[in-house]
Amino acid sequence: MIFTMFAISPRMFAQFIIMAPNSIVAKILTYFPYTSPFITMMRLPLVEIPFYEIVSSITILIISIGIFTKLSGKIFRMAMLMYGKRASLRDIMGFLKE
User: Fold this and answer.
1) What is the DSSP letter of 64?
2) What confidence tens digit (pLDDT) does each residue in 49-79 have?
3) Spans of all domains in the chain
4) Cα angle value 57/63/69 (rounded, 5°)
5) Helices marked H in the chain — which ranges?
6) Rounded Cα distance, 66 and 16, in Å
7) How confident is the model at residue 84 (pLDDT cuts 50, 70, 90)?
8) pLDDT higher at 95 or 49
9) Quick check: 42 and 17 in contact, CB under 8 A?
10) pLDDT value at 87 more than 80
11) Which of 94, 31, 39 has its CA nearest to residue 63?
């Protein structure tokens, strides 16, 4: 449910972003990796987005992709060793610390 909520959050903020494309909320959502592509595409036809915002948004997105790929690889590798046992939140945190 949480991933679905993140996926529809740009749609929930669409009216607000169309009315105020240079607001603080729109700028913060431009940098948040999960919403940055959608929010940036919403803002582009409305205002001229500074080049540094686009570059920094893409950079944050690329870095977060690398980080989350490594973390999910660790979790998947350790979960595969558990042979069907459900991993608790404590187990997952332990996998990430290793």
Assistant:
1) H
2) 999 999 999 999 999 999 989 888 887 777 7
3) 2-69
4) 130
5) 2-12, 14-19, 24-31, 36-43, 51-81, 89-97
6) 31
7) low
8) 49
9) yes
10) no
11) 31
User: How would DSSP label each residue in 46-63?
Assistant: TS---HHHHHHHHHHHHH
- What size, in residues, is the chain? 98
Q: Which residue is it, tokens 């540094």?
A: 52
- Only one residue has tokens 């592509």, namely 37
Contact 75, 50 (CB under 8 A): no
Looking at residue 4, its amino acid is T
Provide φ and ψ at 84, rounded to 5°: 85, -10
* Residue 25, C-beta contacts closer than 8 angstroms, at least 6 positions apart: 13, 16, 17
- Give percent above pLDDT 70 in the chain: 88
